[in-house]
Amino acid sequence: MTTDELRTYLLNTLPPVICRKGVEDLTGGLIKATTLAFEDHQGTGPTEGRFKQKRKVFYAREPFVNWFIEKTESIDV
């Protein structure tokens, strides 16, 4: 699977809104909510499309996927 195929797959399968608390389940354990909170705190998390309702932080799908893909390295086999 190429990076473009992974991006397309994620855009087609992830819900339109991604709650920080549920990110671990949606990414198969690749990203934990605490890691994402730390990335946000450091200014290295997905900044575009990030919202807050009371104490819940959530992200729009496309900016989240773009951020995820930028942080992902392809391994040539």
Question: How would you explain this protein's 3D organization?
Answer:
The protein is an alpha+beta fold. It has one domain (3-70). The protein has four helices and three strands. The protein has helices at 3-13, 23-26, 33-42, 61-70; strands at residues 17-19, 50-53, 56-60. α1 (3-13) packs antiparallel against α4 (61-70). The longest helix has 11 residues, at 3-13. The chain is globular, with a radius of gyration of 12 Å.
Question: How do you describe this structure in short?
Answer:
With 77 residues, the chain is an alpha+beta fold.
Number of domains: 1
Please outline the major beta sheet.
3 strands, antiparallel
Major beta sheet, strand line-up = 1-3-2
Q: What is the succession of H and E elements?
A: HEHHEEH
**Radius of gyration, in angstroms, nearest whole number:** 12 Å
* Structural shape: globular
Helix fraction by DSSP (H/I, runs of at least 4): 40-55%
The low-confidence parts are none
**Integer average pLDDT:** 92
Query: Total helix count?
Result: 4
**SS class:** alpha+beta
Number of strands: 3
Q: Could you tell me the strand content as a percent range?
A: 15-25%
Terminal CA distance reads 11 Å
